[in-house]
Amino acid sequence: MSMLHFSCGLLASHTLEPVPALVNRSLASDGIEVKWFVAPFNQIDQTVLDERSDLFAVHRDAVFLIVAVEDITDDGQFVDLVQALIKRAGLAKIFVHAMWPREPEANPLLASRSILSLFRRSTNLNAGLVRLADASDRVFILDPASSKTDPRFFYLAKMRLDKEGMDSLAETWARCLRAIAGRSKKCIALDFDDTLWRGVLGDVGVSGIGLSDDGPDRAFQDFQRLLLVYRDQGILLVGCSKNDPELALDALAEHPHMLLRPDCFAAIRANWQDKATNLIEIAN
């Protein structure tokens, strides 16, 4: 596997200096090396608005922007700033985190009505970011950063995330870069028994497997629902199960609570061969 070299930028309203190293460590086994430009602390505006900024001195493959709503003083100006970043960043993919208040509103009854409410401001800002993403195929909105935080870190070093939060953020960014590099996971191989449903199909029959839209067996249906999301994103699903082939296909096609029907799979191997042999046949 050849080594890929990426150049990325990081713009943040709070201290995230450990995160680029965590991203690089996560990507090392994927053959991806990232050189980072990290904007000086609390100088997002100056960095984006200065066309001679080091951020724009070389081609960037991706730019990550993460700002806490508590750090924004002018909501309209912030959206304008993101637009300027999109315009000046060339062909770079722009990953912007949505926002959410770190702490619950003091008065939840007024949270949706006061123009100063962080809840209301976050909702409006996120809607503006989504409109920008809809208008450009280079812009992607990521979930709000983890709420894992320790107030002591913020007051001592302007860090809004603790170690667990930074680890989670780094893995999110690493997944984004793997996708750009074409080195993200492209296929999910699935057993059937006690994976797509509860129980052993050959022992209990189609009507006896645990799969429902209510109760504990809804967990299996929700898992299938998640797999459909991955399928819609282009990830291949393949079935690989030691099972009677006709019975397995009947379960997939006929069970009333089954979400993954046979045509959801790129390939199905339900037989009595060992799984390793089946996976090799699917791959070939």
In short:
The protein has 284 residues and is α/β, with parallel strands linked by helices. It is 39% helix and 16% strand. Helix 1 (18-27) packs across helix 6 (163-181) and helix 3 runs parallel beside helix 4.
Please supply descriptive tags for the structure shown above.
single chain; 284 residues; alpha/beta; five-stranded parallel β-sheet; three-stranded parallel β-sheet; 39% helix; globular
Helix content: 25-40%
- Biggest sheet, spatial arrangement of strands: 2-1-3-4-5
- What do the pLDDT scores average to? 91
Instruction: Specify the biggest β-sheet.
Output: 5 strands, parallel
Task: Give me the secondary-structure topology.
Elements: E1 4-12, H1 18-27, E2 32-38, H2 44-49, E3 62-66, H3 75-88, E4 93-97, H4 118-135, E5 139-142, H5 151-157, H6 163-181, E6 187-190, H7 201-204, H8 218-232, E7 236-242, H9 245-254, E8 267-271, H10 275-283
Helix pairs in contact: 1-6, 3-4
Structure description:
This protein has 284 residues and is an alpha/beta fold. It contains 10 helices and 8 strands. It has a 5-stranded parallel sheet with strand order 2-1-3-4-5, with helices on both faces.
